[in-house]
Specification:
Elements (H helix, E strand, L loop, with lengths): L1 E5 L6 H11 L4 E3 L1 H14 L6 H6 L16 H10 L3 H16 L4 E5 L2 H5 L5 E6 L2 H14 L6 H17 L12 E4 L5 H15 L2
Parallel strand pairs: 1-3, 1-4, 2-3, 4-5
Helix pairs in contact: 1-9, 2-4, 7-8
The structure holds 2'-deoxycytidine-5'-monophosphate.
Length: about 210
């Protein structure tokens, strides 16, 4: 069984995908991490994330980079969003994601284009959303909890800009795949969101 979990940043898709993987004993791939690694590598190269050739060169990042906590920073998230606009970068990362999705026994992948491009044949597709204000607040709580001083308004502006770029790029924009189950987590806590997601998966096989 392939489960595709797509949605914007801080929607809860990562938490949901991880929980689904544990519940159904499937391997999980956070595909955003791949784009974050490319974004970080451009930064390390002193390159420009808006330049397709420099972004493509950064797809050759060392595997160890995926373990680096700095990938989770807002700054690297911004770089990731910018490199992910380039079709060359999306093509370079395609096979790796596709192979993960097609492994025997199935998998859970979360990202922006899993249900539309990477695994359109997925038996279950979830599109996880939440209001911008709620997502900004979640990110702010997470960051201040890690001791990082940030303004809520700055995070909200950043998330809105990232949504705009992710939803309006020409190649593989963030949109719900046909047949995807919409899961709005604005008023749900993590446990409720996970329970709703498990129910959505099980309902698919009723
Ligand atoms: O999910 P995330 O915040 O870690 O993703 C970082 C950026 O990577 C996001 O702004 C857009 C890009 N991305 C993408 O284009 N396609 C994916 N499947 C996953 C992430």
């Amino acid at each position: 069984m392939i489960i595709a979990v797509d949605g914007p940043t801080a929607s809860g898709k990562g938490t949901i995908a991880k929980a689904l993987a544990a519940h159904f004993a499937l391997p999980h791939l956070d595909t955003g991490l791949l784009y974050r690694a490319v974004g970080r590598q451009v930064q390390l190269n002193g390159g420009n994330p808006d330049d397709p050739a420099e972004a493509l060169a950064a797809c050759d990042f060392p595997e160890g980079l995926l373990e680096d906590d700095i990938l989770r920073s807002e700054e690297v998230g911004g770089y990731a969003s910018r490199v992910s606009v380039h079709p060359q970068v999306r093509r370079a990362l395609y096979e790796r994601q596709r192979a993960f999705a097609r492994q025997e026994g199935g998998a859970v992948l979360d990202g922006r284009d899993i249900g539309t491009v990477i695994a359109p044949e997925a038996q279950v597709k979830l599109f996880v959303t939440a209001s911008v204000a709620t997502r900004a607040r979640r990110r702010w709580l997470e960051m201040t909890g890690r001791g990082i001083a940030v303004e809520l308004a700055a995070i909200e502006a950043d998330i809105a800009a990232r949504d705009e770029r992710d939803m309006n790029r020409a190649d593989a924009p963030l949109i719900a795949a046909p047949g995807a189950v919409l899961l709005d987590t604005t008023t749900l806590g993590p446990d409720e969101a996970i329970a709703a997601a498990i129910e959505a998966v099980l309902a698919r096989f009723d």
